[in-house]
Amino acid sequence: MWSYAAGGIDLPRTAQTQYDNGVRVPVDRLEPGDLVFFGSGQTRVTHVGLVVSGKPR
Predict the structure, then answer these.
(1) Confidence grade of residue 2 (pLDDT, cut at 50, 70, 90)
(2) Rounded to an integer, what distance in angstroms lies between the CA atom of residue 22 and that of residue 36?
(3) How far is Cα 53 from Cα 15, in angstroms, rounded to an integer?
(4) Residue 20 CA to chain centroid, in angstroms?
(5) What DSSP line would sit under 13-57, residue for residue?
(6) What is the pLDDT of residues 3-52, one digit of tens each?
(7) Using an 8 Å Cβ cutoff, are 38 and 7 in contact?
(8) Cβ atoms 30, 17 nearer than 8 A
């Protein structure tokens, strides 16, 4: 949330609500700044990561 707020973008507070309100991006199209979500199963998201670099070589 902090990183996006610094750029003037408000995100929902919880990982689950961010996931529920976001646009899905295929893994092979992720770019720096995209959010990636982790959790248990498809219906319970508990953690959020931020892509910081491009594809590994």
Answers:
(1) confident
(2) 10
(3) 21
(4) 11
(5) SSHHHHHHHSPP--GGG--TT-EEEEESSSS-EEEEEE--S----
(6) 889 999 999 999 999 999 999 999 999 999 999 999 976 679 999 999 99
(7) no
(8) no
**Where do we find the tokens 């990636």?**
36
Compute CA 10 distance to the chain's CA centroid, rounded to the nearest angstrom. 13
| Residue the block writes with tokens 């959020």 | 48
| Short-list 16, 56, 53, CA closest to 37 | 16
Whole-number pLDDT of residue 35: 94
pLDDT at site 48: 94
Distance CA 56, CA 4 (A): 24
